């Protein structure tokens, strides 16, 4: 499970890095499955195209932290990375903190993001 954890964390951090450098729209259009979705903090469900469009002009995050990470095996070619994410943008009074889950599936030998979900954590 250790190498799987490392592999999924590397992908997750690449996603966060793209959100910090403004390339999130390209990154998520590439890594998400064709039918992948994101369920964001306010309950909105976005498909891959909507995710990419929403990130095109989104303000960049300046910092992020991943903690309390764990992997849940979902079979030979699927796994969920569950963690607490904390991120800040310039001018934020407090960081955005949420329980986050990313479900990855292998497609043609490559990990792809099928489902991402976040639940805000208050007072963290």
Structure in a nutshell:
Strand 1 and strand 2 form a beta hairpin. The model has no long low-confidence stretch (mean pLDDT 94).
Feature tags:
single chain; 124 residues; alpha+beta; Nuclear Transport Factor 2, Chain: A; 6 strands; 30% helix; globular
Descriptive overview:
This protein is α+β, with helices and mostly antiparallel strands and 124 residues long. The protein has a single domain, classed as Nuclear Transport Factor 2, Chain: A, CATH 3.10.450.50. It has three helices and six strands; from the N terminus they run ααββαββββ. Strands 2-1-6-5-4-3 form a six-stranded mixed β-sheet. A hairpin with a 7-residue loop joins strand 4 and strand 5. Helix 2 runs antiparallel to helix 3. The radius of gyration is 14 Å and the shape is globular. It starts with a helix and ends with a strand.
User: If you consult CATH, what is the topology?
Assistant: Nuclear Transport Factor 2, Chain: A
* Extended strand count: 6
Beginning-to-end CA distance, first to last residue: 28 Å
Number of domains: 1
| Major β-sheet strand ordering | 2-1-6-5-4-3
- Oligomeric nature of the chains: single chain
What is the CATH architecture descriptor? Roll
Tally of DSSP helical segments: 3
What share of the residues lie within helices?
25-40%
Extract low-pLDDT stretches: none
CATH class: Alpha Beta
SSE run: HHEEHEEEE
Strand content: over 45%
Determine the mean pLDDT: 94
Based on helices, strands and strand pairing, what is the structural class?
alpha+beta
> Per the principal axes of the C-alpha atoms, what is the gross shape?
globular
- Write down the Rg: 14 Å
- Main pleated sheet: 6 strands, mixed
């Amino acid at each position: 499970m250790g190498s799987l954890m490392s592999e999924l964390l590397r992908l997750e951090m690449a996603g966060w890095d793209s959100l910090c450098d403004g390339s999130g729209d390209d990154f998520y259009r590439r890594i998400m499955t064709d039918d992948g979705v994101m369920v964001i903090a306010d309950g909105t469900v976005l498909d891959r195209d909507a995710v990419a469009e929403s990130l095109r002009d989104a303000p960049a995050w300046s910092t992020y932290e991943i903690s309390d990470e764990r992997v849940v095996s979902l079979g030979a070619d699927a796994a969920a990375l569950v963690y607490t994410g904390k991120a800040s943008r310039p001018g934020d009074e407090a960081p955005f903190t949420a329980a986050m889950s990313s479900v990855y599936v292998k497609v043609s030998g490559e990990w792809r993001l099928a489902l991402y979900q976040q639940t805000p954590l208050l007072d963290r």
